[in-house]
Write a structure and sequence with these properties.
By secondary structure, the protein is mainly alpha-helical. The chain has helices at 2-24, 29-41, 44-55, 71-95, 99-105, 111-120; strands spanning 63-64, 67-68, 129-132, 135-138. α4 (71-95) packs antiparallel against α5. The relative contact order is 0.12. The model has no long low-confidence stretch (mean pLDDT 91).
């Protein structure tokens, strides 16, 4: 059973994320973690498309309207678009004047916040010791 589960994750998550990372020019451990977690949520392609529209590039290292897009800039935009996507149900309920529904659909603690903290700390390689959801983690 465990082998079957590993193969399913390999086929449906790990390999597709590595392929997509190559296409997007993502090379860091943090970048892969962002893509992987978003793939698990089922919205990797949606969020990546939103980043492309916002930055005007299809991959890290390309020139857009604001110049060459580096990986930290791409990841900041990616996490912002991901958070916006996660907040859409609550935003719709607010627009419908349903504040109680919006509260239930509203932002929940998510991996995006943890990933953003690592990005802000400049820990793109997930090196050394860092904290995730209150737990100390030993990176590479």
């Amino acid at each position: 059973m465990s082998q079957d589960q590993d193969e399913i994750f390999e086929q449906h998550f790990h390999r597709p994320v590595l392929d997509r990372a190559r296409q997007l020019g993502i090379r860091t451990a943090l970048g892969l973690a962002c893509l992987y977690d978003t793939r698990i949520q089922g919205v990797l392609d949606i969020v990546a498309q939103a980043v492309q529209e916002r930055l005007g590039v299809t991959a890290v290292g390309q020139s857009g309207p604001s110049g060459v897009v580096d990986e930290p800039t791409w990841l900041r935009t990616f996490l912002g678009e991901r958070e916006a996507w996660l907040n859409r149900p609550a935003d719709r309920r607010e627009a419908e004047n349903k504040p109680v529904d919006a509260q239930f659909c509203g932002p929940q603690p998510s991996a995006s916040g943890e990933l953003r903290q690592l990005l802000q700390a400049g820990n793109l390689n997930l090196a050394g010791e860092f904290t995730v959801r209150g737990q100390r983690v030993q990176g590479v």
